[in-house]
Amino acid sequence: MGATLPSPSATTDPPDDLAHGIARHERRRVSGRQVLRVLLYLPRRIIDLAVEPIRLGLWAYERYELRRLYQRVFSFDGQRFGLYPVVKIESAFGASAGARIVHHDLFRNRGSLDAWATYGNRSGAQAGLDAHSGWLGKRRWRIGLASFYRDVPADRFYGIGDGDLEPAPARPMRVDARARTMAVQTRFEHERVRVALGVTYRIVGPLHVELSSAFAWRRFGPPTRDTSDADIDDVYTPQGLVGYEDGVRNVYNQLRLAVDTRRHGRSPALTTSGWFASVYGGYTVGAWRDRSRYARVGIEAQRFVQLWAPHRILHLRAAVDTAIAPLDRIPFVDLPSLGGPYVLRGYPRDRFRDRIAGFATAEYTWEINDFIAGFLFVEPGRVWSGFDDVSPARLRMGYGGGLQIHSYASFLARVQFASSIDGGFFANLNLSPGTRTWTRR
Amino acid sequence: MEGSLRTSTCRPVPARGRVVECLLALVVGLVTACADLPGRLRFHNQPAHWRVQDRVPIARPRALPVERFDPDMWFYRPVDYVLDVPDPHPAENVNALGEVPDSTWFTNRIGVRDLTPAEIGRGPNRDFGPAPPLRIRKLAEDRQGLRVKDAHGSTFLLELDPPRLPEMTSGADIVVQRLLWAVGYHVPEDSIAYLRRDELVIDADSMRETDDGEVPFTEADLDGWLAGQPRTPEGRVRALASKFVPGEPVGPYSPDGRRRDDPNDRVRHEHRRDLRGQFVFFAWLANTDLNPSNRLDMWVEDPHRPGQGHVVHWLIDFDRALGAISTTNDVPWDGYSYTIDYGLVLASTLGLGLWERPWERAKDPGLPGVGRFESEHFSLARFRPRHWHGPFLYRDDFDDFWATKILMRLRPEHIRAAVGAARYTDPRASAYLVRTLLARQRTIGRQVFTKVNPLDGLRVVTRGADTALCADDLLLHHGLGDAAIETRYEARAYDWHGRLLPWRGRAGPGRDGSFCLDRLRSGRARHDYTIVEIRTRRGPRKYAPVLVHLARDPGSGRLRVIGIDRRRR
Quick check: A300 and A322 in contact, CB under 8 A? Predict the structure, then answer.
């Protein structure tokens, strides 16, 4: 039995000086806390003002059920169909913003449609449409379409090869990029359209084969936006840049064999376990007087390993991409490349191009809470001019980390910071709610 | 010092001689300033108040909207709290003994008398749940709550378990409702009902809420509501039936401040001990959902004075407790982290995931009807509800002590009775819940009773000419202490003026954790006003003193406890 306690008395009239028989709290003398309170008064008011819009937004979100309102206005067909904002910020390419329409259950067969359009002053106009049918015919077949248009007013080119970055020459030079490795940061206009159609056949379990055909059209020219970098044709001779003068029009056919056992956690944007491996080969032929004619072969393997506790995931990835042909048969932008926010992070986008590109990733991801994950990565890699050159010597190495924000239903945003053993600092923000992952892998 | 339950020397004494008293107290205060013992606090020579008059008739207050949740609860409140640098603020609605009097918020039950297991098994319920036929009134828009009127004209809200987790949410609600009632809160009459489809009657007034308003409730709606539910061999479906509480709803009570249109609401809610103490009870029961919709104010009209009444404060909806929400919503952090927990986010970010978060070792028992609820990794200090809550931010060790005293009075048979009321079909589920609740109860008791001087049941015992002050050491009384560690109690006494009396008391604990300080020497002034300072030493640990104020009852002439002053150091 518990401790003895007094039994409750009957109601006793409270004394006059007490509130209902209970003495009120009395103020104390000036304390250190009060001094601190005075000192913090101004910061508190400033923070109040700063967070007021957020509070107001959250209050309105709940009070007026803005989520439901948003869904009613921008989300259709039982929330399978939605309109979402897209914002991207990338070092050297500035900010771009736009919108995407996503349908998660096309033809009521778990097919998908993802159409987007963005515009940025430095990154230019981009639009795209991806769609796939969902699994058909006893869940074995799937048809897909991937297409995009991009017009980048000042894309970057650093020459061909693994050269260290050199300052822009004081006077125009005319280096043949095929013959001499000289890495200078230059700019050019790059307009392109790519349309790809593919059919996927599930062989057994997670093993599938994919046959695809893509048509690409590209046009190049001097940059249409002023930058501090040199123009491409002030450094590199246009004759040495295959396709630069006449543009590129080619068709690429590819066969790919892949196994995919990846699984995700509470959010589809956070892969927690499994394998992805693929091997592919294809051939490109030019059309309408285009001289493109090269084979492409590659292999990729990814492994997601849960470490000592749930939601501590090590993502290992290795990939090699090769273009097999003399350099004068490969458009300079079709050469396998490294650098940018997705591969060999820590280097500028397309910093390295050559006939062979290989890189590896070790990325550690840990859950901070249900909606935020942190990640750290290190990525060695480099390009080589041919199989005879391939060696692990002089590997480039990028490293960095960041945060990913997601919901239980989709990816929301990713902030990434990266650098490399060669210096430089790259920040990247990708806000793209409604998608499954931060990038197509 | 727990300074709210009493007044200073100068306030409560009669006006005559007040100046002299104050000057005297000042001199005494200066002399004893270093120790601040026994201090200037003096209590009225009267019994402690055990009931508060907060039912003064008032007009019906404005009905406040029930927000699904208050965004400040998980975003702004902690920031504001930290920047405000609040002083420690003792609870205000306590009597001279530090207890919470009965009110429209709280009714002392097991805290002041022994309840039988049958009483707890029945809880606040006056009947056996809804009596069929049940006429359907309305199905909520989320298609979960079905409002029905039973054969006696009572209105009930029927809720089903998630189809894949039978008995989990309904069982949790019943267990928690019974136990919260036992400790003293106002909770609705909830019961488990087994329904046949033909007992649910659709009539012309049966409606279903939709985005665009109400539409007639159809047979298909009823089929949809019952779909996927497991059936008993007799074809019945299990449901949680919650009887509507009496009165008219006037919205949820705020966790902070007072209700301005209710003159009876005199104490800021964050300074109410009964609300602060919920931290202990909610931690015990893993009742983490503090949404405003789970608090309800009802205005009850006085039958003799139409248009006048008073507000009663209720806790409702416990179906997410006992780890149920952790399982149904797959949120293993429930009970260990706020929804947005700045501290954990910072620690997790800087810790790079190398730090194992508190919930990551906790296991799901994997029993039918039982959520992710365990005792092995439970700690009161680690408990976090889903949202920041004003009373919990301001709570102190004495609030925890008050609640834990009550909690520890629940015996295994009480808990078994509460769990039995949930009617789990698998006896392993019932046994596990009882075992886990008992283990968590003891964890709380051990943690709280080692933080404050756990003396309670302070009483004056007269044996012939000898007067003794007796008390219970709750850590030992409940068998939570380490028998190998020696405990000693030392006491000295002061008179009304704060002068040390020629008496020293020393004692050790008895087998039941109680002890008496014999041959007590009382003061001579003001009805023999005496202040006994008791210090507890347990092994190397010294607890802050408890000051027990005694005075002679003018009626009986017996010395009695009139107030308790628990010190922080």
Answer: no
